[in-house]
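Pilot study result, target chain (77 residues):
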Amino acid sequence: MPRVLWRLWRNRPGVQVVLTQTAMGQPLPRTLLADTGAGTRNAPFELILDEADCRRCGGLPLFVRPLRGAYSGNFWV
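Predicted structure:
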């Protein structure tokens, strides 16, 4: 993975992204906070989005995977 210089958002490293809503094609800006402890290199997650944001942008949940650590619980993949 290439190196990224993260800006600080409220004293936390983060990056702004713009998702696109599928229904209206409207931009959906979000600030993603870095979490270097979210998982291992082989974890099934590259990015954790709010379920509603994922669905608004065309995400199709396939199955649930448990995640431990900073963000623990069951998440749709």
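One observation from the pilot: The two ends are 21 Å apart (CA to CA). A full batch analysis is planned for the follow-on phase.
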